[in-house]
Structure formats: C-alpha cells, structure tokens
Write a structure and sequence with these properties.
With 124 residues, this protein is of the alpha+beta class. Helices cover 35% and strands 28% of the residues. The protein has a single domain, classed as 2-Layer Sandwich (Heat Shock Protein 90). It contains three helices and five strands, in the order E-H-H-E-E-H-E-E. The protein has a five-stranded antiparallel beta sheet, covered by helices on one side. Strand 4 (103-108) and strand 5 form a beta hairpin. Helix 1 (13-28) packs antiparallel against helix 2 (34-52) and helix 2 packs antiparallel against helix 3 (93-100). It is globular.
C-alpha cells in the first residue's frame, strides 16, 4: 500500500516531499536508503514545481525489497533525460535519478497527466 501527500507547486514542496518520504522510509526500516531517496524525491518534486506548476501528489510504497516513489501530476508531458553542458545550473535531475535508482520511468495516463517514478532497492 502506498502513502500519499498532495502538494502545491511552490518552493516549499520539494522539502515537504523529501520529509514525507524519509519519514516513511524510517518507519519501514529503510533508513539506510534515506539520503539517496531524499535526493531523488527532491529532484522529481522540483521538476514538478518548475515545469508543471500545478498541484501534484507524491506517493511512497514499501515493496518489501525497497521502495517506490512516484510523482503524479496533471500535465501529460514526460520529462526528457538530457546531458547538460558542464556549467549549466540545471537539467541534471533525471541523470541523478538514473545513476542512483534501481529502476525508474515515466508513464502518461490517458486524459489524466503522468507519473514519474523510481525504485530504490534495500540491497543496493
């Protein structure tokens, strides 16, 4: 079962998403994943704030072997992984997620926005 939190598209949302997810990791015994999962959650929530500018939902689910974090928003445009120039100040979020997550992806929902998600394995 996943736990959910709806957030508005403001500058406090990434921090709130991070705290919400980490609190569940600690309850479920995945505290050792907190640093990486907090960073990845913050990246996805920041993308939602900057590129969607609509309320969004963060969900965290105990998979028994790790966790899945999902951001659902109403905009049906999937983010694109890119390689920013060395001195760009942004554009590395999906690169970070790709390097830290066990797996990740994005799906468009017919008439209902999209989900961007990642999984973090307890075994590393």
């Amino acid at each position: 079962m996943a736990e959910h939190l709806e957030l508005g598209p403001d500058e406090s949302a990434p921090g709130a998403a991070r705290r919400f997810v980490v609190s569940w990791l600690e309850r479920w015994g995945y505290g050792h994943l907190a640093s990486d999962v907090a960073l990845m959650t913050s990246e996805l929530a920041t993308n939602a704030v900057q590129h969607v500018a609509e309320p969004f939902v963060v969900a965290v689910e105990d998979l028994g072997r790790g966790v899945r974090v999902t951001i659902d928003d109403p905009v049906p445009v999937v983010p694109v992984r890119r390689s920013p120039a060395p001195f760009d100040t942004g554009g590395r979020g999906l690169e970070i997620i790709a390097s830290l997550a066990s797996t990740w992806g994005a799906e468009v929902h017919d008439g209902d926005g999209k989900s961007v998600w990642f999984e973090a394995s307890a075994s590393g």
